[in-house]
Amino acid sequence: MKLTHDQVQDLLEGYALWALDGTDRSAVEDHLAGCEACRRTVRELGDVVAAIPETIVERTPSARLRDRVLAAARADVARRPRPVMSFRPAWAVSVALFVVALASGGLALRAQLDLASVRADRDAYLAIAQKVSEGGRWWYMAGSGSFDGSGGTLIDPKKDGQAFVLFHDLKPIAPDARYAVWLIRADGGWVRAANFWPSADALQRVDVPLAVGDFVQCAVTIETRDSGSPQGDLAMQSRVFGQ
Amino acid sequence: MGDQERPDDDLLHGLASRDLTSLGVLYDRYSRPMFALAYRILGDGQSAEDVVQDAFLAAWRGVDTFRRDRGTVRNWLLSITHHRAVDVLRRRTAFRPTTLEAVESRASDADTFAEADRNVVGKAVRQALAALPTAQRNTIELAYFGGYTQSELSELLGIPLGTVKGRMRIGMLKLRRALESMR
Ligand SMILES: [Zn+2]
Question: What is the pLDDT of residue A135?
Fold first, then answer.
């Protein structure tokens, strides 16, 4: 279900109070990922909602709860090794969560919430890609020329095999143009892996329906046709041969 | 500096590096407001304690989801607690009051608005809530503490959905102004 900005505005109080059913909540979160105005309203409402529990008198739980909480946390450490992500800036966390969610095929709506506020720092972005593709391979493509500031990471997960590119800060292009993703072989041959149009979101996933294994590099160009060899401007290219 | 004086930020770093002492300090600092909130929503100590435990475990695992620019650690923990308690409440559909009278009798938790004057924010919000017309206040409290969705409120109160939303909107706006004026 896709909601308009006005429809979402109408639901934001309910959203902030956790008073929407699951369907509405998901639809609002989808919209929030791409709408700064609505996110601002949610933040403001969130401040009000956060004040409501302050009206209650504190109450002491039973003494054994403290031990239970600590025991549960201790058991959690034993069960799950140190998390992949360490403490780091919030936006980076959002990206990481998002990538993990994408890789697992799930829809982490909660993580999407903060996506559009992401302004990716290249180095940190690289580190994240490296971590979330643990065991798999990845290439970072840096935007050049008029595409400076944009970029994308091709991630080839070891487990489920579906490779994809996570782009950030894609620039708009002419209406009759499209972005083309290319995989480059060791012998220098270019193979077109996907065509796509930029969404308005800060992050965009594009699937790569090819086995990435035999390629050593990747690139993105702007093309006017869906097929054929690369003709248009080079938008970004990987410098790194990922591990 | 003793553990009890460590700033919240420092404790979160501790959580990120799996330090149980940091978790213990956070527990000592925030378990009481968290338990009070869960108890207010669920109405029994056992379920409320389960929710508090869940909330701390969620914080322990998800320390990365804390957004410093979105509010305090206290608010973050209370928000996790709120969401979890409401989710638990909603799963117990069989036990939820479906008439307004039943809701009101359950909601009259004597100590809810009793004391808490030592808490400046609490006092201001309580006054602001009390100053709202009953219909607006009920809508907000039934949603926040009663776990009712907007559609459920429309049914429960026998008013159109648009009216529920309108009451929430105006009520929240007034609360916001009241909070802003005290800053
Ligand atoms: Zn919007």
Answer: 62
ipTM: 0.89
Statement: the pTM of the whole predicted model exceeds 0.95: no
Q: Do A55 and B143 touch (CB under 8 A)?
A: no
pLDDT digits (tens, 9 = 90+) for B72-105: 999 999 999 999 999 999 888 655 666 666 565 5
Please tell me the class of the B99-183 domain: mainly alpha
Q: Is the pLDDT of residue A105 over 50?
A: no
- Nearest CA of chain B to the CA of A118: how many Å? 13
CATH 2.60.40 domain position(s) in chain A: 137-239
What residues have a C-beta under 5 A from ligand 1, the ion?
A 5, 35, 38
Q: Chain A interface, mutation test: which of B13, B49, B150, B161, most A Cβ atoms within 10 Å?
A: B150
Give exposure, B6-23, as e/b (b: 16+ Cβ within 10 Å): bebeebbbbbbebebebb
Tell me the CA distances in angstroms from B145 to A37, A133, B55, one per residue in order: 28, 42, 17
Domain A137-239 sits in CATH at 2.60.40
Tokens 């435990």 belong to B53
